[in-house]
Amino acid sequence: MKRTEKKLQTRQNILDAAAGLFRMQGFDNTTVQEITEAAQVGKGTFFNHFPSKQSIMQTLAKDRLFQLDEHVDTYRLWKLPFLPKLRAYFSFFLKEYEQNRELTSRAWMNLLETDSYVLQKWEELLEEGINNQDITPDIALRTWALVINSHFYYTLAVCRKETRDAFLDELMLLVHASLQSILTQRGHRMMKKLVVVGGGYGGMRILQKLLPNELPDDVELVLIDKLPYHCMKTEYYALAAGTESDQEVRVPFPKEDRLTLRFGTVERIDRHNQLIHLLGEEPVSYDHLIIGLGCEDKYHGVPGADVHTFSIQSMEKTRRTSEALNNLPPNSVVSVVGAGLSGVELSSELRESRDDLYIRLFDRGDTILPMFPKRLSNYVQNWFEKNNVDVISNSDITKVEEDGLYNHNEFMPSDAIIWTAGVQPNKVVRDLDVEKDDKDRVILTNHHHLPDDENVYVVGDCASLPHAPSAQLAEGQGEQIASILKKRWKGEELPNRLPPIKLKGVLGSLGKKHGFGVMGETALTGRVARLLKSGVLWMYKHHTGV
């Protein structure tokens, strides 16, 4: 290693060691001796790099400051109006606020007291605001930079908010009030944050309807999802059966400058403080919220069902199901519990994928798919008989064990059991203190928001709607929510009632060559139904809509 590189590495080791100790035991309780021991350097080496322990605090903030230009370029912050850009700068500076509020506050207060570089950043930002016509041109840059600096210092000294977003809200109120006299009409508005939680069918349709040109300049759009792409959940059965690859059921999220993507698992929604808590991540604040977290399996209290069955309700679970099914030895027994659309499509696809398996499909009713016309139900039943899928009608699964299940208390051995016998809203939604129907779905107003909060909408499987949950219903609801938001942003009056969401029909597959469904009043079977479904999927995947 070159001498210069070694010196930089030693400096960074001292900084990392000091920051770690400051976080654990506080700045005042940490000695230089402890820092040098943690960094494995001598005191002489320490003082070659830092004249005092206090200077480390300043360096921690200054190093962050020197990374600002790269951050601005990476996230194209230069495109934002003045106030949102200023908030973004503060947010970047305070990245570690929630990990250690005291350390972060003291580091930046120390830098503001001893260095003028932050002042230069505010002057540059104000000058950009003048050039972009967000700020009146006849202002003294240094004076207003000092105003911003003083508000930053004051909020660092007195604010005790637990989250970075809450801190920023308090700081920006002060800044906005002070700078109001120099802001032009264009730059006057405070940035609002619209957060979409869940990139499912409803969330995707909302993004498509708002981007790129229907989002006001003062609205920041954030999407939170566990995965970096939208998943075509209606096709999980094919992924599980091994007839489609992982990539075939993915659709990229829109790539737009106005869209911020946050990846993480939502743990809790705090409506009181308008925060979305993520597992292992910083909370995300919101002004407007759209909840589209989807559904998960409902086990109806059947003992062992949640432990000993496979699922196709999420991408992660479907991958595990696919691995288990495709690793089964020849002549294995597979039990599919639930003969709704998912169970039927999974059973038929698995039959085409693995003709060596013995497949049982457990149906609670007398007739398979009773929601369809009788001739469609008979068509599906006959397909299963011809293809050696055993449909067990009037079933009642009372218990599930590792090596089988009990139907009416009769044990039936199984090498793999897939549960498709009902769904319920995501647990985060079930835990919300809001009014729900008897299926735990959230009751909404005519405009799809909570009755007591017009800024919180629910889309998709978690919403209580007149129709059974479906991708098509979520998309229709998403379109209406997008139209409501646009009217509200423009100050237009909302209609008393929205038109009913029109569903075009339902299509299901029986393997790759046969299908069934209803389009309007017309019942379809065979190759035509399957071709129609393939066409609908192709159009959706290529963002042309249906």
Explain how this protein is built:
The chain has 546 residues and is α/β, with parallel strands linked by helices. The protein has 3 domains: 51-185, Tetracycline Repressor, domain 2 (Orthogonal Bundle), CATH 1.10.357; 192-226 and 264-297 and 425-501, FAD/NAD(P)-binding domain (3-Layer(bba) Sandwich); 315-424, FAD/NAD(P)-binding domain, CATH 3.50.50.60. The protein is 42% helix and 18% strand. The protein contains 19 helices and 23 strands. The strands form 7 sheets. Strands 5-2-1-9-20-19 form a 6-stranded mixed sheet, with no helix packed on it. Helix 4 (53-66) crosses helix 7, helix 7 runs antiparallel to helix 9 (141-158) and helix 9 runs antiparallel to helix 10. The model has no long low-confidence stretch (mean pLDDT 91). GO terms for molecular function: DNA binding; NAD(P)H dehydrogenase (quinone) activity. This is NADH dehydrogenase. It comes from Salibacterium halotolerans.
Feature tags:
FAD/NAD(P)-binding domain; Tetracycline Repressor, domain 2; 3 domains; single chain; flavoprotein; 546 residues; 23 strands; alpha/beta; DNA-bd_HTH_TetR-type_CS; FAD; DNA binding
Short account of what is shown:
With 546 residues, this protein is of the alpha/beta class.
CATH architecture of the largest domain: 3-Layer(bba) Sandwich
CA-based shape: elongated
Number of DSSP E strands: 23
Helix content: 40-55%
**What's the overall average pLDDT, rounded?**
91
Amino- and carboxy-terminal Cα gap:
60 Å
Largest sheet: 6 strands, mixed
Give the full name of the CATH homologous superfamily of the largest domain: FAD/NAD(P)-binding domain
Count of discrete domains: 3
Which percent band covers the strand fraction? 15-25%
> What is the number of helices?
19
Strand order, sheet with most strands = 5-2-1-9-20-19
Give the assembly state of these chains.
single chain
CATH class of the largest domain: Alpha Beta
Enumerate the spans where pLDDT stays under 50 for 5 or more consecutive residues: none
Per CATH, what is the topology of the largest domain? FAD/NAD(P)-binding domain
Query: What's the gyration radius in Å?
Result: 29 Å
Domain HTH tetR-type: 8-68
InterPro entries: DNA-bd_HTH_TetR-type_CS, FAD/NAD-bd_sf, FAD/NAD-binding_dom, Homeodomain-like_sf, HTH_TetR, NADH-Q_oxidoreductase, Tet_transcr_reg_TetR-rel_C_sf
Pfam families: Pyr_redox_2, TetR_N
Cofactor: FAD
